[in-house]
Design brief:
Layout lengths: L1 E5 L13 H15 L3 E6 L8 E4 L8 H17 L4 E4 L16 E5 L5 H11 L3 E5 L14 E3 L21 E4 L8 H10 L4 E4 L7 H7 L9 E3 L5 H9 L3 E4 L9 H8 L4 E4 L4 H4 L6 E4 L2 H9 L6 H12 L1 H27 L1
Parallel strand pairs: 1-2, 1-4, 2-3, 4-5, 5-6, 6-7, 8-9, 8-11, 9-10, 11-12, 12-13
Helix pairs in contact: 1-11, 4-9, 7-10, 10-11
């Protein structure tokens, strides 16, 4: 297949530091190319993903001028490039000039979904645009519009080493952006009440530094509560692999949470809040625990010995590995292309 793959213009693929969606696009592009498919990636000019790349002329997704330039460039390249399918991880607006054309188009959502834009895309494309999301929770309000598929996010398994066991007093880990909705302050409370050590890792967005200084920094003592800053893949693998559990006490509706898959790939169980996609990713009592209160988290920590770390790894291998994700998208591409070919053949009779 000849596949056009798009990512937003703000962050390179793969990202240098933070960039969850860009990591998924990079993983997918590499996986597709390794299976012999021709992939052209439309992305940030400093992207290094080892496939054919085209740089966006506009650098901002929110700029109307940049969006217009990106729309025009994508349409020109696709309509002259004999692509079999267009798969967008960027803004649906970039697909606007292509919507009336018969080429199959897939729009993947990893952020909040707008009923208005989905309806617009579905209507203007006359069914040639189909949709996917990374969790069932995301599509509750829009599943009645067009065709929807669920293909979760995943992780490259070779990056994460499985740890079959850890010490009984191994630390708990919180890994993510350091801001209120992610719940690092709750992780601190949980660790203290469970009499456990906690390692906090992640970047502090500039706009949340004041909140960090008031609600997290005063509790960091370098003994029970430690903060190690942002971590790269190697450090993340080591940190998660030696953890007793990964804490995810979120205060918002997380669409997926790749770090849950990263933790489980290391064999580390996840204890998360019953919000967003957490109950879909974590099998309560099997690969971790799902709760609603600080008390639930503390109780779960006391039951961690009942979790088989091999079951955590096995779930990622089956559902959230790079192989599983590439398999899922390839199957969908084939179905979409075959369906469009049947429609075209029928219309020509």
């Amino acid at each position: 297949m000849r596949i056009a793959l798009t990512a937003d213009p703000e962050i390179p693929v793969p990202p240098i530091n933070y960039g969850g969606i860009e990591r998924i696009v990079d993983m997918l592009a590499r996986g597709l190319a390794s299976r012999g498919h021709e992939v052209t990636l439309f992305a940030h000019g400093e992207s290094t993903c080892p496939v054919e790349r085209v740089s966006w002329p506009g650098a901002s997704s929110i700029s109307k001028l940049d969006t217009t330039m990106n729309c025009a460039m994508l349409a020109s390249k696709v309509l002259t490039g004999r692509f079999d399918i267009v798969h967008s991880f960027s803004r649906i607006a970039y697909l606007t000039p292509l919507l009336p054309f018969s080429i199959p188009k897939l729009m993947t959502y990893q952020r909040e979904i707008s009923t208005k834009t989905v309806g617009f895309g579905h209507q203007l494309s006359r069914g040639t645009l189909e949709f996917s999301a990374i969790s069932q929770w995301m599509v509750e309000r829009v599943r009645h519009i067009g065709k929807w598929y669920i293909i979760p996010n995943g992780v490259p398994l070779q990056v994460y080493d499985f740890s079959a066991e850890v010490a009984p007093d191994a630390p708990l880990v919180f890994l993510g952006r350091i801001e209120e909705i992610k719940g690092p302050h709750l992780a601190i409370d949980i660790a203290r009440r469970a009499n456990a050590n906690l390692i906090i890792a992640g970047n502090i967005p500039a706009e949340h530094n004041g909140w960090f200084q008031q609600n997290v920094a005063p509790h960091i003592d370098g003994r029970q509560i430690s903060y190690v800053g942002p971590v790269n893949d190697r450090q993340k693998n080591e940190l998660l692999g030696r953890a007793r559990a990964f804490l995810m006490p979120i205060l918002w509706e997380e669409p997926f949470g790749i770090v849950m898959a990263e933790a489980m790939a290391c064999g580390t169980p996840v204890i998360g809040t019953r919000r967003g996609a957490v109950p879909e990713v974590v099998v309560d009592g099997i690969t971790g625990f799902v709760g609603e209160t600080v008390d639930d988290f503390v109780s779960a920590i006391l039951r961690l010995s009942t979790i088989d770390r091999a079951a955590c790894r096995a779930r990622v291998e089956r559902l959230y590995s790079d192989r599983a994700i590439v398999d899922g998208y390839l199957k969908l591409y084939e179905e979409m292309i075959a369906r469009r070919s049947e429609i075209s053949a029928t219309s020509e009779r």
